[in-house]
Design goal:
Shape: globular
Largest sheet: 2 strands, antiparallel
Radius of gyration: 18 Å
Strand content: under 5%
Order of helices and strands: HHEEHHH
Structural class: mainly alpha
Helix content: 55-70%
Number of domains: 1
Number of helices: 5
Oligomer: single chain
Length: about 130
């Protein structure tokens, strides 16, 4: 488990703020988030090892990288929607725009629900089902 400590939240917030740039391409955003995920994997996600099976995951393994990238992307998206809801982000009306606040609050809620839904999937049931044939 990766404990979301106040220090980790601060890192995620700083990385997120650094990665936000309205004029950048999606490719540059993904590159920045990936760079931060490498740092997170190294600094925050402990190496895992099962000596009996000679299986281990180090900070440079794809699995731990994707785990940290998932955290980075999730935090970035939720932070951005939250900020846009607070600001009433709008290109047509005076800020804060009530319509935009409502729109971004709904997007924030939908994104959170989708992350929770994925996290709550019964993967153990799927594993058992595959084993039994």
């Amino acid at each position: 488990m990766v404990e979301i400590t106040p220090e980790l939240k601060k890192k995620l917030l700083n990385y997120t703020r650094t990665a936000i740039n309205k004029d950048q391409s999606v490719e540059k955003l993904i590159k920045k988030l990936s760079d931060f995920a490498v740092i997170l994997a190294k600094d925050e996600i402990k190496n895992r090892e099962n000596q009996k099976c000679k299986v281990n995951y180090q900070s440079n393994s794809p699995e731990l990288f994707v785990w940290s990238l998932g955290l980075m992307c999730e935090y970035w998206l939720l932070f951005l929607y939250k900020q846009k809801a607070i600001d009433g982000h709008c290109y047509c009306h005076t800020k804060p725009c009530p319509d935009s606040i409502e729109f971004h609050e709904k997007l924030l809620d939908e994104a959170k629900k989708s992350f929770i839904e994925i996290a709550q999937q019964d993967f153990q049931h799927d594993i058992e089902k595959e084993k039994s044939g």
